[in-house]
Structures are given as C-alpha cells and as structure tokens.
Amino acid sequence: MDAQKVEELFCWGILKHLLKWVCLLQTNLFLTQVEERDSDNFLFDLLEALQDPETGISIKNRTWMLKKWKNCFVGKDMVIWLIEADYAQDVDEALAIGNDLLSRGLMSHVTGDHAFKNEDLFYRFAPGPEIDSARSRNVKSWTNKALEVIGGFDGEDILQPEFLELDEEMMVAADELEVSPLDKWNLQLLDNVHPSNWENPDPLHYNIVAIGAGAGGLITAAASAGVGARAALIEKHLLGGDCLNVGCVPSKALIKCAEEIHRVRESYNFGVNIDGDISVDFGAVMERMRRIRAEISVNDSARRFQEELNVDVYIGHATFTSKHSLEVGGQTIRFSKAVIATGARAAVPSIDGLQDVNYLTNSTIFNLTELPRRFGVIGTGAIGCEMAQTFARFGSEVTIFARSEGIMSREDPEAVSIVTEQFLKEGITILPTVTYEHIAENENGEILVVCQVDGEHQEFIFDQLLIATGRAPNVENMGLEAAKVKYNDRQGIRVTYHILTY
C-alpha cells in the first residue's frame, strides 16, 4: 500500500472520530440545555406538540402478530417528526430526546422491552395529569384532589372522610362506593379501580362483553383480548370485585395479623415468656390492610386492562336493550357474546328494626378504624366465623348468633367440632337456636339485640354488629328481560350444565 493511500485512510479515520465526537457533543449539549431550561415546561410543550391531533405524530390503535395495541405511535415516525419540527437536528439527537423521555417515565415501549429506537417499534405516552389530553386534565384524580386540599400526606396520619373535603361530587361518589377512610391508600385504590377522571372509550362492535369486573369478568375480558378478540369490560362499582376490595385480600390481611397476635400469646408453649400485657394497634393493622390492597389493586386497574391488556373498559351501570346490545353511560354497545359476571352482595335477613341500624357487612367491615369492644356476629358461615375469630384475637368480646344448634351447619361435623372447641378456647361466645325479636340502636350508637336463645329471652348490647347471613345475586335493574335471560332474585340467573343462559 503506497503512502498516499495510507494518508487517505488515516485522514478518514480521524474524520470519522471527529464526527462521532461532534454527535456526542451535540447530544450532551442538548441534554444540558434541557436541564438548564425549565424542563417541566419544555417537556410539557414537547409532549403537547407530539400529541396534537392535527400537527403531531400519528397515535392510533395498531396491530402486530394478531394482537391489538392501543394508542400507540411508531418510533421511526417520532424521529422524523422531531427532526422536521426542529426539536432535533439529526437522528442521533432525536434518539437522545426519545430516550430522555423514556428515562423520565413519560413514554414507554408497549411491552417495556426496548429503548427508544429509529425502528418500526410501538411506543405510547405515559398516562398522567401532566400529559393526558386537555379534557382529562380538567378532571382531577382522587389523589390529586386530596393533595390540593391537604397539601400532602403525613405518613402515619389517618384521614377520616369528614376531614377530607373533596368536592361534593367526589364525596358523594366515595360514599356510594363505601370506601373509607380516605387516606392515601384508599385514594390510591380508587384511582386504580374506580378512577374519577376515567373516560369511557368510543363503542365498537365487540366479540365479547364482560359485565362485572370481579374475578370472572376480569379473566374473561383479558383472556379473550389475549387471543385477538375485541373485548369490553363494564363495571359500575370497583374493578377487582369482592376478592380485591371486600373479600379475599382484605380479610386475609387481617387474618394474618390476628394469627401473629395469637402466636405471640401462645409463645409460652415454646418457652418464650413475655412480661406485661400484649397490646394490639388496631389502626396500624387496618392501615396495613389498606396498603396491601392498594398496592395489589394496580393489577386489576382500569388503566392496566385498557392500555396493557387491550380491553375497552367502561365504568358505569350496564343495561341490556336486546340480546346483542346494551347501554352504559348513555352509550350503546353492540356485541356478539356477553358474560354476566356481576357477582353477589351481602344478603340481609328480615329482622324487626335491623333496617334502621348501622350494621356492618363484608362491604363495610374493612372501613373500621377503631376496634369495637363488643362485637356481635349474625351468621355462622365462612365470613361470620373468620371475622369472629379475627376480632376476638384483636381483643374484642365476640358473640356469634346461630339459628341452628351451632356454627358452620353445612360443613363436616368433625371439622365443626374442632373449630367450635377452638372458638370456645379463645373466648368466643356461641349462642345456639336463636330466634330474633328486635334489633335497635340507641343514642350512643350502641346496638341492642333482643332475641330468644334456646327459648329463653335475652338482650345483648354491641358496639358493632356484623351481618354475615349469606349472599344475594346482583341481577336487578340490568334489563335481563330485554336480553331474554331467565333469572330470579333469590337464585340469580338460570344456566345450563355448560353455564349458558336459557
């Protein structure tokens, strides 16, 4: 190789390195300029421009490998837009901008598997009050509204609903949803499973619609969308249903605490001696439950199902108008198939005066913030028995009322005998063959239960009374007649062996 050729290669090598350094310098200069500016305003302006429906990049539902991805844009399109809009001088600078937005959590790859690249990859902007549409920004989330009122959360403080003056509409909504107290955990829960700023999507003709977002509805909608079906999910109350909100999750969180308290009390059996009384911080127990529930709730959240699982989520009451159509929030939804998964609620027995008493059910017991000294339970099934033992271990004086001769009448007698023996050992009073005469509440909020126990007239006073006498199906006011679905108020919807309606 002659000297001239060597010199040319050497010059090209130097030029190549110089160009690379210039690109790095421009990128670093851009990032420095972003940091030196009012970055919030800069990013807000950039994101507003990117999402402008007339002049921004194309954001729409896209399909790849038979799977639908909602509200996405293509990385390559954004690179071109940034250069043409003079936000970037070249591809490298555009990539630097995109990856900066990515690192700040303001946008993401749809599956989280890629950095920002100049390729045909799908990305979407992160949801949030800073970068949502103008219409969404005008409606406050539960948490943001609370922060406006109180200025922040003080860690251990528990906010009672009456102390948190949200606007009237939100206070009424919280009361109807039976969620209390409105501390940071319950606000986080509501933001996930009943967001105040939610806007129902534009209706499509769906392959399948699930009414009710408990376990059945969630699984139906997610599984259907996962194989390419156009799926919708409708919930008027709280996504996650009983299991997340008023069943499995909160009850097992309390039971775990009660179990640990019992272990401590019984530790003398293992040679562990504890001097002094064992105290239970009931407020901390309940806050732990609310924290766990709120942290889990993101898995059942409206936003996750709509943006990650490709399910159209509607919040509102569904009413059938025909076998293949229904209305929710003033919108008409058409579908090929529907799954009715509306679950059940606490059944309340017909006892004189009970309707005028502030009793508890499984929907409201988890709202307590103070441990009742005297705790009554009407109902001897799973819910009544597990809450009776839990509150007894917390320190309440617990009395269970049984219509039959004992508890858990549908279970194996040997198992019932073991549970009954343990309950009596733990100081729980079980009253058999009870006939109720009257229930009333006095001016102090105490609840009086007047009844016959084994034919003997007795009166009991409680600070809280739990009603756990079974479940009633949620089938009313759904327009099931218009859908030609057979049902009754006691047994619910009539189905075949294959769980199809008649």
Strand order of the largest sheet: 7-6-5-10-9-8
- The first-to-last residue Cα distance is 89 Å
The low-confidence parts are 33-38, 128-139, 155-163
Which structural class do the helices and strands define?
alpha/beta
| Overall shape | globular
Helical content band: 25-40%
Rounded average pLDDT: 86
Q: Please state the CA-atom Rg, rounded to the nearest Å.
A: 30 Å
- Give the total of beta strands: 21
Distinct helical segment count: 15
Described by strand count, sense and barrel closure, the largest sheet is: 6 strands, mixed
Strand content: 15-25%
Description of the structure:
The protein is of the alpha/beta class and 502 residues long. Helices cover 37% and strands 21% of the residues. It has 15 helices and 21 strands. The strands form six sheets. The chain has a six-stranded mixed beta sheet with strand order 7-6-5-10-9-8. Strand 12 (374-378), helix 14 (382-394) and strand 13 (397-401) form a beta-alpha-beta unit. Helix 8 (184-193) runs parallel beside helix 12 (282-297). It is globular. The protein starts with a helix and ends in a 9-residue tail after the last strand.
List its salient traits:
single chain, 502 residues, alpha/beta, six-stranded mixed sheet, 15 helices, globular
Q: What's the arrangement of secondary structure elements?
A:
Blueprint lengths: L2 H34 L2 H12 L9 E5 L2 E8 H10 L6 H13 L3 E3 L12 E4 L8 H4 L4 H9 L17 H10 L6 H10 L11 E7 L3 H12 L4 E5 L5 H5 L2 H18 L16 H16 L4 H6 L3 E5 L2 E5 L2 E4 L2 E10 L3 E3 L27 E5 L3 H13 L2 E5 L11 H13 L3 E3 L2 E8 L5 E7 L2 E7 L1 E4 L3 E3 L13 E2 L3 E2 L9
Parallel strand pairs: 5-6, 5-10, 6-7, 12-13, 12-18, 13-14
Antiparallel strand pairs: 1-2, 2-4, 3-4, 8-9, 9-10, 11-19, 15-16, 16-17, 20-21
Helix pairs in contact: 1-4, 3-4, 8-12, 11-12, 11-14
